[in-house]
Amino acid sequence: MIDEEYRYFLIIDYKYGDENYNQGDLEKDYDLQLPFYLYAFQRQNPDLKPAGILYQQTSLKKDQRGKEANYKMKGLVIDLVSVLKRIDPTLSKIQGVRVNKDGSLPQNSRSFISRDGFDELIKNTEKVVSGVSQRIAAGDFVIKPILIDIDQRTKDSISCKYCKFFGICYSKNKLLGGE
Known about the structure:
By secondary structure, this protein is an alpha/beta fold. It has two domains: 2-137, no CATH class; 142-179, no CATH class. Helix content is 27%, strand content 15%. The chain contains four helices and five strands. A five-stranded mixed sheet has the order 1-2-3-4-5, sandwiched between helices. Helix 1 (33-44) packs across helix 3 (115-137). The chain is globular, with a radius of gyration of 19 Å.
C-alpha cells in the first residue's frame, strides 16, 4: 500500500496461518520474508518511506470468524501517530497499536519502530541477503537447524518442521543431543 500524499508505504503479507514478525529472527537468518520485501521495495522506491511490515491472517477457524480482534494484522509499524492514523484511522486493525490519552505512543510496545529503526532493519537485511548470496555462490549449504526455537511437543527444532530429510538428519540429531 502506498500513501501518495505522505510518501509512505506499507507491506502486508497475507498468510494462511497466524504469523507475527519477531525482529530477533533476522539475526538468525530466519523469517526473512517481511524484511526482504521491505528491503526490495525500498530499493525500487527510494523516495518512499516505510510505514510498516505486517502479516494478515487469511484463514480462521469457524468459531473465530466474525470477531474483529481475530482479523488484526501483526508486525511492525512506524512510531508516528499521524502516519498510523493514515494507515488505520481507528487504530484498531493492527495488534499492539494504541495511543495514550495524551496522544503519545506507549514506550514498551514491540509493535512500533522508528524511521531510523526501519533504516537499520533495511541495512541489516541487506547484510543478511549479501551473506546468504555469498554462501550460495560458494556452495555453502551447511545444515544448521535453529535450535533456539524448539517445538515443545516433539522437542525438535522448528526449522526442521518442513525438511524432507528430517528423519535422517545427522546434523539435527547431533546438535539436539541425539546419536
